[in-house]
Amino acid sequence: MPAAIVTADLVKSYGRVRALDGLDLEVATGEVHGFLGPNGAGKTTAIRVLLGLLRADSGRVELLGGDPWSDAVALHRRLAYVPGDVELWPNLTGGEAIDLFARLRGGLDRARVRDLCERFHLDPTKKGRTYSKGNRQKVALISALASDVELLILDEPTAGLDPLMEAVFQECIREDRAAGRTVLLSSHILAQVEVLADRISIIRKGRIVESGTLEEMRHLTRTTIIAETASSPAGLADLAGVHHVEARDGRVHLQVDARHLDGTVRHLAGLGVRSLVAHPPTLEELLLRHYGDEITPDGDAPAAGPGGT
Amino acid sequence: MTAVAKRPAPAAAAKERAGTLTGTGTMIRFVLRRDRVRLPVWVLSISGFLVGMTSTLPDLYPTAADRQLRADLMANPAGRALTGPGYGLEDYTFGAMIAHEMLGFTAVFVALMGIFLVARHTRAEEELGRAELLRAGPLGVHALLVAALVVVGGATLLVGALVAVGLASLGIETVDWGGSLLFGAALASVGLVFVAGAALTAQVSEHARTASGLAGAALAAVFTLRAAGDLGDGTLSWLSPIGWAQATRAYVDGRWWPLLLSLGLAVGLAAGALALNGRRDLAAGLVRPRPGPAEGGRLLGSAAGLAVRLHRASLVWWAVGLALFGATYGFFVGEAERFIEESPVIEDIFVVEGAAVIDGFLGMILSLLAMTCAIQAAIAVQRLRSEEVAGRAEPVLATPVSRAVWAASHLGVGVAGSALLLVVAALSFGVSAAVALEDAGVVARVVSAVLGYLPAVWVVAALALAVFGVAPQATAWVWALPAHAALIQSFGGLVGAPRWAYWPSPFHHLPLLPAEPFALLPVLLVTGAAAALAAAGFAALARRDIQSGA
After folding, report:
1. Domain coordinates of chain A in residue numbers?
2. Which secondary-structure segment (H or E) carries A18?
3. Which residues on adjacent β-strands are paired with residue A127?
4. Which of A55, A93, A140 lies nearest to residue B292, judging by beta carbons?
5. Is the pLDDT at A294 greater than 60, yes or no?
6. Which of B:389-428 have CB within 8 Å of A?
7. Could you give the residue ranges of the DSSP H alpha helices within B343-440?
8. Which of B126, B135, B104, B298 is nearest to B204 (CA)?
9. B289 touches chain A (CB under 8 A)
10. In 3-state terms, what secondary structure has residue A31?
11. Segments in chain A forming alpha helices (H)
12. Rg for chain A, CA atoms, rounded
């Protein structure tokens, strides 16, 4: 099956700022694709190019087999979009906005809208100006999820939602994936992407720096080990593939490259292991590795995410 | 506690426990800091406009006979409805002239200043959630409201003071210090009533727009009461703060006591506002917001329907305003002929060579109506830009709505809406002119003539689209074209403007119907210019980026 989204060497500049600097993104049909990166990395710019709202300076972009700039109208019949910052008309109610977007996309499934309003606890009779950020997002989400489309493009869709609504959102995305829809999910909520995404692309300064399944990425990266040993752990830092060795509270924290795991564990065994915790890298750690020069961990090892769930 | 020393309104303050005003001084400085540009702009533009207009009067009406002519024009019912009770019309000095023609009109702007600024510093702060942040600190429950009352009330008094000093300093005969002080005080008294009134309406609704809307409706009611009163025996005017201000008879046989009525009302309204403010929850209103429809109606199914829905309310208000505007001018038509022929200065503005004086006047008014409708058309097309910047265009353009269809929807409302408004305005103008002239044929002549101005309106709408496509940041300035057209047509002859100064106005290139004969060529050329501008706008929009949140 052809990919739903392919970009190659995509460049978009605003004056001297290169928002996209050779972006290579590929989203396979039928997958939930996590699009991760810090603010200002180019996620929203990339999405706006995919929607034909911005024209790329150079590079190739293909969406559902068409050109998002020249075939915008035809392609938009097949997708639904939720912006990161949903703005509504102050004097239209949420229900009116939901119906408007759904009808513009070419169809309104009244029963599905009603069902989604219930699940997301949205009162559709309130005027746009009275909604909180989270409720405005629900309006855009409900309208998108109620549409019969092939592709959902979601730009940080749950930034204003509470954890309960987050769970409803995840449930809806799983249903959509089961129904064969493709989802591009831009986020910096790592737990959400870890839970939902089949594949992940990490964007930094307008480029994709890492792409693959979470498993593949973990394979490429370091395992975190926290150990309490009988004899002094001095010398660990000199081993090949061992990084960030730190002794704290009588324990040693370190990170090991996957291919040097064996040797490191053998060395630890020789020191007399009293307790040992090892976990695969969380997305926080993956990101910290790529953005380490921008985000300085505050001395602690990055908090372990709900990895594995 | 130092804060207890400040008492806003005796009735309400007597019951307050110490502490409800804590932090008022800080909030006053905060309001002044936030509006350090806005306040001077309001105060100086109102007082400067009034004093500036007054300074031109001696040149416009050099002799007592000129002024008396003007008094006669003002003495008719339409004149009274627009201006006021008309004290001193029998001996129309410059003082009597400004008290009669400018006090009521300027008072409306002082009241608007009070309404907008009070709503901005009270309800808007609560609606946006910023008041919550402030009130979480050691701030008394009334601090924000009292600070707004003190600052905006102070600005109102400052307008009155500047106007009094400015007018008296002009050195125009009969515009003396005593009269000017009374004039300034009367002006400020209307402002104070609406400062306090807006503080009260800010308690009613959860939304700042509703708060200022309610106060604005009260202002319209107060102006209408005064107009109705001055048309009749004057009884109704005594129900209106604007009527009280005019009842001071500044510059005629001035008296101060009517201002006590305004002062009493202002204190009562402020006390009511404080009482309600002390009783309700933060961010809550007295009136709970009504729920709207849960489902979109038939209009909300296409880009065009959305555009109609977004512009509908504003079109209705424009239609009401233009109908009133047209009807008012219609009543003047009867007097206009004599007035124009007797005043050489005015004659320069209205008379078209080779046409009846009355047709010249009709043409001038019709083209002014068309220019006003052109401003509406520009505003409708400018909505494209505000939708784009606010980020509301993006989700619409992410549906199967092309940019061309989206832009055409707002352009269409601008073009069709302004045509509708123009016909409404011309009909209302024609009907009242027909009554004034006792000639039913005027209606058809006026309505058919006004259609001849439509191509110039299209140019303005199309220019707005072209600017939106090519240089979107400049979109907000398009109204300058119809504004220039109105100014150059009204005053160009008076100040002897050179020919090229007329050229940018699309109205200048069309025949001044019905005074000049219809000509097809200019109509086609101006229509062609509109089409070219629109085409340029569509083409540029198709090529550029959509600038959400720019």
Report:
1. 5-216, 222-280
2. strand A17-27
3. A93
4. A93
5. no
6. 390-392, 394-402
7. 344-350, 357-390, 393-397, 403-437
8. B126
9. yes
10. coil
11. 43-50, 72-76, 94-105, 110-119, 133-145, 163-178, 190-196, 214-220, 261-271, 283-291
12. 22
DSSP B429-482: HHHHHHHHHT-THHHHHHHHHHHTTHHHHHHHHHHHHHHHHH-GGGGGGTTHHH
| CATH class (in words) of the domain with range A222-280 | alpha beta
The pLDDT score that the predictor gives to residue B44 is 95
Res. A302 pLDDT band, cuts 50 70 90: very low
Inform me whether the C-beta atom of residue B298 falls under 8 Å from chain A C-beta atoms.
no
B550 vs A contacts (CB less than 8 Å): none
Judged by a CB distance cut-off of 8 A, whether residue A126 touches chain B is yes
pLDDT at B351: 66
What is the DSSP secondary-structure string of A55-104? Answer: --SEEEEEETTB-TTTTHHHHHTTEEEE-SS----TTSBHHHHHHHHHHH
The 3-state secondary structure of B492-520, one letter per residue: HHHHCCCHHHCCCCHHHHCCCCCCCCCCH
Tell me the C-alpha distance between A43 and A205, whole Å: 10
Identical fold between A5-216 and A222-280 = no
In this structure, are strands A5-14 and A17-27 parallel, antiparallel, or unpaired? antiparallel
> A278 phi and psi, to 5 degrees?
-135, 135
- Check residue A298 and give its pLDDT: 40
Contact B395 A85 (CB under 8 A): no
CA distance A167 to chain B (A): 25
| pLDDT score at B1 | 41
CA-based nearest distance B248→chain A, Å? 43
| C-beta separation of B398 from B392 below 8 A | no
Interface confidence: ipTM more than 0.85: no
Test B395 with A77 for CB contact under 8 angstroms.
Answer: no
- Do B141 and B276 meet the contact criterion of CB atoms below 8 Å apart? no
Contact status of A64 with chain B (Cβ, < 8 Å) = no
Query: Rounded to 5 degrees, what are φ and ψ at A226?
Result: -125, 120
Rounded distance between C-alpha atoms, residue A185 and residue A172, angstroms: 13
User: Is pLDDT larger for residue B418 or for residue A280?
Assistant: B418
Residues of chain A above pLDDT 70, percent? 91
Domain assignments of chain B as residue spans, ordered by start: 24-278, 303-543
Q: What are phi and psi of B37, to 5 degrees?
A: -100, -45
Q: Tell me how crowded residue B502 is: count the other CB atoms within 10 A of its CB.
A: 16
Among A174, A161, A201, CA closest to A50: A201
Nearest CA in chain B to A14: B545
Hey, are the CB atoms on A83 and B549 less than 8 Å from each other? no
Q: Is A51 on the interface with B (CB under 8 A)?
A: yes
Exposed e or buried b for every residue in A45-82, given b needs 16+ CB within 10 A? bbbbbbbbbbbbeebebbbbeeebbeebbebbbbbbbb
- Nearest chain B residue (CA) to A13: B545
pLDDT in tens, A134-146: 999 999 999 999 9
Predicted pLDDT of residue A305: 35
A151-155 and A182-187 beta bridge pairing: parallel
pLDDT (0 to 100) of residue A222? 77
Tell me the C-alpha distance between B109 and B105, whole Å.
7
Q: What is A5-216's CATH superfamily?
A: P-loop containing nucleotide triphosphate hydrolases (3.40.50.300)
Measured between alpha carbons, how far is A284 from B426 in angstroms, rounded to an integer? 68
CB-based contact (8 Å) between A181 and chain B? no
Tell me the average confidence (pLDDT) per consecutive run of 10 residues in chain B, 550 residues long: 48 55 92 94 93 88 86 73 84 91 92 94 87 86 94 97 96 92 97 96 86 89 85 85 95 94 97 92 79 87 94 90 85 72 63 75 89 92 94 95 96 96 95 89 93 96 97 89 85 76 92 89 96 97 85
Q: pLDDT at position B342, please?
A: 65
Return mean pLDDT, chain A: 86
B297 contacts A95? CB cut-off 8 A: no
